[in-house]
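2024-03-11 09:14:02 INFO queue: dequeued item Polysaccharide chain length determinant N-terminal domain-containing protein, len=465
2024-03-11 09:14:02 INFO validating residues
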Amino acid sequence: MSEDAIRLVTIGRIFRRRWRLLAIVALVGALVGYGASLLFPPSYTTSTSVVLAGQWEERELLTQTEIAASSAVVDRAAAALDWKGVSAADLRDQVKATAADGNIIKISGTASTPEHAQELSDQVAKEFVTFASRLAGDGTESDTEAGPEALREKVVQTNRRISDLADAADPGQTVEGVQARTELEKLRTALQEAMKKLDEADPATNKANMVVMGPAALPTGEAPPTRTQLIAAGALLFFVCAVIGHLAAARANRRPRTEPEIAAALGSALLGTVDVPGERLEHRTQGGARGAGLRRILGLDTRWDVPTPQPSGGEAGRQTRYRRVCARLRDRVPGSRRLLVVVPDTDEIAHRAAAQLVTEAQNDPSATSSSRRNPVLRVVEVSMSRPLVPDRDTEAGALVVLSAGIWTSGELGGIAEACADAGHQVVGTVVAGAVRTRQRRTADHAPQHTAPPVAVGNDAGGGAG
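2024-03-11 09:14:37 INFO prediction written
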């Protein structure tokens, strides 16, 4: 796993073998999300639209959105609402303005209740229209005569003066009188057209024309993040972190996984690999007796990063592997000698393989002389945390049987040291692996040779079995 790419099959293996732990971690994350929702009270958001008449450029609309959410507008709205315990500074963080298509400014207000959110949006929109109209209109009282209203008054006075001049002209039908009145009417028409164009071009007339498109709608749901969203986010976050933690631990795994690496860690020769049939065989991890029940419930007593067993090659192929291991044992330990078979106490696959080796060693159809007989095997369990091997009595050495990929180099070295302390030489290593059988065995198709009771012990006496 440390050198392989992370694939979907790896993620699926985590889900399949650690689903209890992942479910509990997700539940804890949901509880954390619920606790976070208690720290953040629910809020409600609604918005009011303000239409701006005339032609507006994009940068001018952005300016208007800044004005709508400015302190000058929000402070006036806060003074008008006069909510207890809510200051103008608090409302500034609860008001937002955005520009939409069609010269529309959307003013959003957020509050702790739907009614307050509606009141806040409406009041800010009202204050914004008033403030913008004051900026664009006749708010410059220091220069009133120079403004548009003063110019209109001058035009009205000029029209009156033109009327007086027309009345004072020659009332007769002389050519001079008619021409004078015609010129005065042309002047009056020109002034009226000029005022009309001035009104159309005056930004104070057009851009001050803002209309609020009705009151804000009463919110029917909480603004995000809602309590449900916080709970779901907490569960998802913890779930993803748990999966990433599994992957990170697997990437950092430096356990020997190949047969040569395991044999090198034990300082012995590799005698072969054997298969153990059974799809439900699991690699159990070590744990204290006090936490064994909890680890079993959470699935922590089973390794998840061990590959799925491969299909079996058949009963004949499996027995051939065991016979070859026994043959290599005969070559390394000639004569009818005794050997200890050292097996980790939590390795179920290794236990099955050791039992089958004992069976094959007892059933020796190929032996023709006493010098070619298989050695007598006695199985002993050792704790990987504190390995202890029985002292040497009549045994000629020790044979280590274990699974691949679940023990560290330090643990394998501990077994080798325990064998050396007891006076046993590690004559070889057998690596066992689980395989899937093609069909379940029935009572009618049971194997001919069943494993006899195996002597298992962890005592220091180490008598012959």
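2024-03-11 09:14:37 INFO annotate: Residues 175-201 form the longest helix (27 residues).
2024-03-11 09:14:38 INFO item closed
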